[in-house]
Every structure is written in structure tokens, then in C-alpha cells.
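Good morning,

Both structures are done.
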Amino acid sequence: MTVPPTAAAVRSRGAVLVAAITASSMSYIDGTALTVALPVMKLELRASDAQAEWISEGYLLLLSALILIGGALGDRYGRRRLFSLGTWIFAASSVACALAPNVDVLIVARCIEGIGAALMIPESLALITAAYGPRERGRAIGIWAASSAITMALGPVLGGWLTQSFSWRWVFGINLPLAAVVLFLAYARIPESRGEAKRGPLDLLGSACVTLGLGLVVLALVQMQQRVGDPASLALLGAGLVFLIAFVFVERRAAAPIVPLRLFALRDFNLASAYTFLLYAALGGVLFFVPFELQHVMRFTPLGAGLALLPTIALIAVCSPLSGMLAVRTGTRVPLVAGAVGAALGFALFARLGAGASYLGSVLPATVVLGLGLGVAIAPLITTVMGAAGSGDAGAASGLNNAISRVGNLVAIAVFGIVIAASGGGALPAAAHPEGFAHAMLGAGALAFAAAAFAVFLGPPQTLSNR
């Protein structure tokens, strides 16, 4: 006989869900609002192209490298404790970002913000998993996902309005009232929870290797935007690859690795991981560079740039639940292939942007097609990852897939900067060198099309559901 939950337990669950949604909203709004504020920040802070990139790359680097160990810390020392700590760090660093007197201080503050996000983000879903039973958990996660999608849609518009009407510094101020809500709920309503007991020390060596490896690779790629064959950049790239290779060996010998390598023995998980990296690399690169094209070349206002991107994010929010239901009937292979092909076309359509291009003729078709493609692909991708890993590794698979998507963003911004710089201008879009931006957008389309090719080889639906 099932015992109904007590009133206190129900209130606790509600508090967990609201806190998880609000915390995720902080990270999503911060990221999407920043995309339209960044061109103005670059001008006001007199930042170089490389410094403007590091405002985003610094955050993504620390988040990508530490998000896995962030989840492990919560399992060991308490999810509410790490969730609260991450929120405090995120809020404090947001204040530092808002008050930054120069671009160097801003980059450091953004790196610290990435550390806070790496503690906060994985614990939000872990707290939901701990608070809700198997029957209610799916609905709770669905509410969390839908709410997060809505906040993503609000981010560019809110960021554009604040930047245009007040200052880009107010974009970081959005996080403070949200953090206050999260911390109140965390201390007043959310019970502490931990994961299963872990043996062995924390995988600090693995975390150090992946952080140094990713950092050196991205630093080398950003430097190559000035000179592709620069010996110093090649040396940094080589050193970064050495650290990443060392990371694999460390994980094989670690008692409690942050990356369970057994997942990579699963064929469909490997295919889904490749798909994730390629699709999110394309998306991250486009969302970073398109606002520069809209504002610096097409003379959109910050608010206009935010509104221009709204169809993509809104369509992702609308189409993802429908695509998830379609995947239940058809399996994930068909929507993954169709979604990636649609996204590839949307990315390629952005190549038509430039001086003299119109919103209705160029911007709107690209954003709508891209939103439809991504809306079809994202929910089945999550289903594929979780189904390929099986219930025993669901948490590790979700965290690893999240990290892979962030690394894709991280690398793509640096690589697309090289493509744009190769046209003869700087690493950011400029009216004098329109072909660089067009080549980068076509490159994003090629990445998404390659993702579709990986999805073709996924196993049949019953293979995923019976693991």
C-alpha cells in the first residue's frame, strides 16, 4: 500500500522544484542575455576581440571542466550544501561582473561565476531526483525543463532591453533577486540529501588535467586568430592535448573517476555524445557571433538583436515537448536526423546576413528554421543519452552529456573566430569582411549535418529502451 506524502513533504517538494527552476533560470538568463549585451560591453570596455571572447570563454571553461566534479561533491558532502554554495558564488561573482572597472576584472569574475554554476547546475536536478519518487519525477523534470526553456526565451529580450535602456551592467544584476529566492528556499524549505557512499578520494587530479587541457587548447585557438601557424600557439595546443590525453589515463586508474569511462563502451552513447558535441558546437558559435553581426554590421539595437533571436528559442520551447512525444512513437533516430538537418539549414541561412540584409528576408527565416530543427532534435537527444546508458548510469550520463555540450560551445567560439579572422579582418564580424562571418555560419551548418550522419547509425528504439 502506498503511503501518501505528508503536507510537509509536499511543501518540501514544491520548494525544491521552485528553487531548481530559479537557479537554472539564473544560468540560462545570464548566458542568453549576455549574448546581446556583449557587443556593447566590448565597445564600452575597449576590449580586444580576444578579450571579448574570453568574457564568454572563461565562464564556459570553468563550467565545462568542473560541472562533473560539482555533481560528485554534492553526492558526497550534501546536495543542498553545494547547491547553496554554488548560488552564493554565482551571486557574488555577478556583483563583481556588474561593478568590473575593466575587461580583465570582468573576465576573472566571469571565471568565478563559472565555478559557481558548476556547483549549482548539477545539484538542481539532483535535488529534484532526491525529492520526487519515480512516479512523480518525470512530471517534475518536465516542469523544470519547460520553465527553463521559457527563461531562455526571455533572456535575449531582457538583456537587450536592459543594455539599451540602462547599462549592460544591469544584465548581471538580474541574478541577485533570483539568488535571494533560491537561498531562502534552500535554507528554509529544502532538506539535505546525499548520494550513495563513494569510495576513494575525490578525482582532483582528473579535474586538474581536464581544466588545464581545455584551458590551453582554447588559449591556443584564440591566439591562432591572430596568426594560425604561430609556434607558441602550436606549443600551447600540443600541451593542452597532452593534458587531455593524461586525463583519460587518470580516469582509467581513479577510484572514483569524474568520467565513468564504461559509458564509452556503449556504441549508442558514443554516437549521441558525438551528436551532442557537433550540434551544440554549431549552436554555441552561432549564438555568440550573430549578435555581433546584427549590431555591428546590420545596425540593430541591443533590444532589436534580442528580439531577432526570440523565434529560435521560443520554437525550441514549443517544439521540444511535441518532439519528445513523437520520439516515443517513432524512436529517436528519425527526429534526431531530421532535427539536425533542419538545424544545418538554419545555420547556413545565417550566412545571408550582412549589411543591407533585411529582417524579414534574411534574419527571420534563419531563426525560424533553426528553432524548428533544434526543437525537433533536443528532446530525443536527451532520451537517447539516458536510454543508451541505462538507469544505473543515468546521472553520470546526463552530467557527462551536459559537459560535452559546454565543451562544444567553448571550442566552437574559438574555432569560428579563426574562420572569421582568416578573411583578413578581426575575429569578430565586421562589415569590411563579410565573407568571414558567412564562412563561419556555413561551417556551423556543416557541423550540424555531420551530427545528422552520426544519428543515422543509432540502434533501433528497442535497443535503447531495453538496456
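Second structure follows.
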Amino acid sequence: MSGIRELRRDDLPAVCALYEQVVRSGSTEPSEQLVRYFERTFFDYPWSDPDIPSLVYTDSDGTIGGFIGSHVRRVRWDNRPLRLACSGQLVAAPDPRHRGAGALLVRRYLAGPQDITITDGATDYMRRIWIGLGGQTHASASTGWAKFLRPAAVGGFLMQRSGHRFLSRSLTAVAPAIDAAIRPILGRLGGFLPPEPVTTAEELSVDGLVEQVSDAARRLRLRPDYDPKYVQWLFEELAAVGFRGVPVRHLVRGRSGKVVGWYIYHLAERGIAQVLQVAAPMGDTGAVLDHLFRHADVHGAAAVLGRVEPSLIGELRQRRCFLVPTDWCLVHARDPAVLAVLGTPQALITRLDGEWWMGHHSIGLSEKRHPPMRVST
């Protein structure tokens, strides 16, 4: 008889084979790196929680026909500890026998003991499943924003993503000259290019992030409950996601030397910066964004991309950022008050706290690791 049970360590080769076949290369032979990656992110990370495990769907003969990954985070709501579960990788075998396995896995996962469940890399299909099971769309976090710094370079990147290789190569070749001509015009228009920041920055350390988020408790009703062991693991994993680029993490100070906020993002070699967290709960959000944009610009980014957080909306508009499509962010919670806070500036739950940034798509295909980028502006 088929059914759903907890993922076990000895299931990982079969689970990775299924994931490799359906999501990645089409092969049924996953790399050893992928197996190790699943082991360290599902079983061997600091906040692994046996009460909220990853799940597998099995046939009557015990064959694994589907699985859903679980990444547990700790948060505080009005200083009360809660467990936040990130619904990660969801895969079902391409076999008529497993039709509906994905929905069954999601239903079982949402019924777990966690206080909040999220996923921030969802497809339209996943969104339909969640809505049918009582979940909701996190509207602002399902909207992306973009700060374009070198428009021609962005065009080359989009052509490459669309599969137009000849046009991509042609545009990429002339993009530096086009952008060199365009940028003085953008500078005169105002707001399109980041100004010289009035702030300074230093590398954001493990203890620094823990301290800043803890100090922000007076201004935030819902926030991560970081500890040094987890943040050290988090920073190491950010460096392991080679395809996203160099991790940059900065603590930003104002003219008086007082901390105004911090940011964490990936600066990719192709020039697209992906923002994971921007926070200024006790300072100036605009000043933090200005430093981030300037840093990305100085290091040659074509664009800075992120998702819309309630605390950023006004500042993004003033800085000529555009709304762009992104993945669905879905939420589920038993307490409506928690859901209400999630959509306000009183919550700090960002992409850094979800599974969107994680490296399951690329681990084993490229094992390149990047140390954090040092401050140079």
C-alpha cells in the first residue's frame, strides 16, 4: 500500500536520483555532491527539527515516488518563539501512478506542528495546490523589483535567458559601449544612478547579524530568532551557492557612526545582483539601499534584483526601481494575526529566511565557493 512517511538518511540516494531526473539533468544518477548537499541541509544543519521532517511518498513496494524537502527556521512573534517551516523541493516521479502525490505531500506537510509554513520559490501549479489547502499568497513578497544600472548589459542577459544565443553574444559585445553612452544621460535624469553614499560600511559578522536582529526586537513584531551556530552555517551555505555569485554582507553606519541597518546580497559574475535581506529597523532604509546600490554599481552589476518587502516600498519608488515578475511566495498559518503581521513593516522575514536562494539546482554541477566580498566603497 502506498503512503507518506518521514525521509530517512538511507533514502537520500533514491531521492536525489528522482530529483536529478525530474528537476535537473534528466539522468537517474545524481552526483555525490548532491547527496551530501541534501544530507547537510535536511539532517545536519543547526535547526534540523525531527518534528517537522522532510517527507517521501512511497509505492506499495516501498519505491520512492515523490518527496518534499523541509527547512525549519526559528522566529519570534511578540517575543514568543515560533517554528517556521519552509516547504522546499517538491518532486513526483513522472508516472501516472504518482499523479496527485505532490498535493498529498503538501497537505501532510502543512498539517505539521509548525506555527507558520512558507515557500518562496513556488510555481503557478504549487500556488494552486496551496490555495486549495488553505494557504495564501504573500502579495508583496510575490512581486519583484529591479534597479537597472547598465541597461544594455541587462538586455544581453535577458537574451541569453531566452535562448537567443546569437543576439545575446552580439548585444553583450557592444553593451559596454552602449552603457557608457547611456549612463551620463541617466545620471542627469536623477534617481537612476546611485549617488555617492553618505554612509560607511563594514563586513557584517556572524555575531553582528545576531546582535542587530536581537536589538531590533523593540521595533519588530515578527523576526528571525538567529543564533551564532545557525548564522555561521547560513553564511557558509551562501558561499557554497556558486551560481548566484559572491556573497556580500555589510553593516551600514551613518555619519555619526551609529548603525542604521545592514544588507546581504549575491553579486554574480554575469553582473546580476540578487538581494536576500535589507533591513533598517532602527535607522534609515534609504541610506542602506543607497549603499547597496552604490556597491553593486562600483563592482559592475548590470542590475540589482530583489523582492518587495513592506518596509522597502516607498524607498524603492524614490530610487527609480521597477516592478518585475518573480516566484510566488506562499504562506500558511493557523493564527490569522501572524498572517496579518507578515504583510507589514513590523515583520522581518526575507528571502534569507526562505529556501529560494539555496543551491539544490546547482550543487554538483558547479561546486565553486565564494568568500564574502570585502568592503571597498
